[in-house]
C-alpha cells in the first residue's frame, strides 16, 4: 500500500508562482496542512511499525515529511525520483505573467511541460514509474510518499495506467492523502487546516 501526499502550501503557491525545482518556505497554512495530513495518516496506518516515509529532496517536501514524521514517529528517506517537475526557465515566474506572454501554450491543460529547458512528461513518467517498479510487491508495501503537485499526478497516472490527458486532469490538493493499492486510488480529505 502507498499513501501519497503533496507538500503543504508554500509562499510560491500562495503567490501563484511556478516552483518547479526552486523552493519556498511552507506558509502557516502549509504547516497546518502537513500536521492535519500527519493526523489523518496516523488514523489510516494504525501503528507506524514497518512503514517507510519517503520524500522528495526539495525543502517543501522535506519540511512536510518532517511534520508528518514527528506525528508518526518515522524519519523520512529521500528519493529524487519523486521530486517535482522542472519548469526550466519558468521556475520562479508568476503564472499570470506566463499566461499573458504565452496564451497559445497556456490554452492547453498540460502547459507545464512546454517550458523552455523544462522537463518533459515522458521523462517525469519514466522516473516515477522507476520508483514504483523498485518498490516491494504490493502485498509487502507500506510506504508513505511526500511529493508534489505535478510529480504526484504523474505518479498516480503511472500507477493506474492513465493517458497523459487523464493523468494531468487529476486534482493535486495539499490537504488530502491518496491511498494507492489493488489497482485503485482512494482519496481521503483532511479536516480543514487553519494557519
Can you walk me through this structure?
- It is a single chain.
- The protein is built from eight helices and six strands, in the order E-H-H-E-H-E-H-H-H-E-H-H-E-E.
- By secondary structure, it is α/β, with parallel strands linked by helices.
- The chain has one domain: Rossmann fold.
- It has a six-stranded mixed sheet, sandwiched between helices.
- Strand 2, helix 3 (59-72) and strand 3 (76-78) form a beta-alpha-beta unit.
Layout: helices, strands, pairs:
Blueprint: E1 2-6, H1 11-15, H2 28-45, E2 52-55, H3 59-72, E3 76-78, H4 95-101, H5 103-106, H6 121-133, E4 143-147, H7 149-160, H8 164-168, E5 176-181, E6 184-189
Parallel strand pairs: 1-4, 2-3, 2-4
Antiparallel strand pairs: 1-5, 5-6
Helix pairs in contact: 2-3, 6-7
Number of strands: 6
Helix content: 40-55%
Overall geometry comes to globular
Oligomeric state of shown chains: single chain
Biggest sheet descriptor: 6 strands, mixed
Beta-strand fraction estimate: 5-15%
List unreliable stretches of 5+ residues: none
Per DSSP, the total helix count is: 8
Name of the CATH class: Alpha Beta
